Amino acid sequence: MVLPNILVTGTPGTGKSELCQQLTKTLGFQWQNVSEIVSVNKFVEEYDEEFECPVLDEDRLLDYLEPLMKKGGCVVEYHSSDFFPERWFAAVFVVRCSTALLYDRLQAREYNDRKIKSNMECEIFQIPLDEAKDAYRKDIVFELQSDTKQDLEANVERVRDWLEQWKALLNKS
After folding, report:
1. How many beta carbons lie within 10 A of that of residue 121, not counting itself?
2. Residue 73 and residue 27 in contact, taking contact as beta carbons nearer than 8 Å
3. The whole model's pTM is what?
4. Binding residue per annotation — 28?
5. Can you give the pLDDT of all 173 residues of the chain as single tens digits?
6. CATH superfamily name and code, 6-165
7. Does the annotation list 173 as a binding residue?
8. Is 109 annotated as a binding residue?
C-alpha cells in the first residue's frame, strides 16, 4: 500500500524537523525538507536582507515536487503552506510551540531581533494554523503542540493513529 502525502507546517523553531525525522524513522515517510530542497536546487527569486532569508521560487519548487508527490509517502516540511496544492495531501499537521520556548529556540539559531519578533508574532497570532485552515479542508488540518520530548512522542503517535484511520478508510472504499 502506498502511503499518503502529509504536510508538516508551522512557525520556524516549533519542532517541525524533529517530527519529520521521527515520522521518517517510525512510519516510513520520505522527508521532503523544502528549505533544504530550495537551498540545494537554488529555487530562489531573491534574498530578503531585512529578514535574512531567501525568497522562494514557488513555481520551480512545485515543478520539482510534483513527481515525488505522485508517488506518495512524502512528508513535506515547510513554514508556509498555502501555495501547495490541496490535492497533494491527505493531512496537514501544524506544529505549535509555547512562545517562551520558541523565543529561546530562535535565539539559539542566532536569528536577528527583527526575525525573532516576526516569527514570535506569527506564532502568537497562529498565522501558520490559520493559513492551513484557509488553504485546506478543515477536516484534514490538525494542530500539534511541541514543547517537550513527550509532546514529540505523542505527536508521532497521533500521526500514526491518523495513518491507521486513513488506511482503514481506504480499505473500506
Report:
1. 12
2. no
3. 0.95
4. no
5. 789 999 999 999 999 999 999 999 999 999 999 999 999 999 999 888 876 778 899 999 999 999 999 999 999 999 999 999 999 999 999 999 999 999 999 999 999 999 999 999 999 999 999 999 999 999 999 999 999 999 999 999 999 999 999 999 988 87
6. P-loop containing nucleotide triphosphate hydrolases (3.40.50.300)
7. no
8. yes
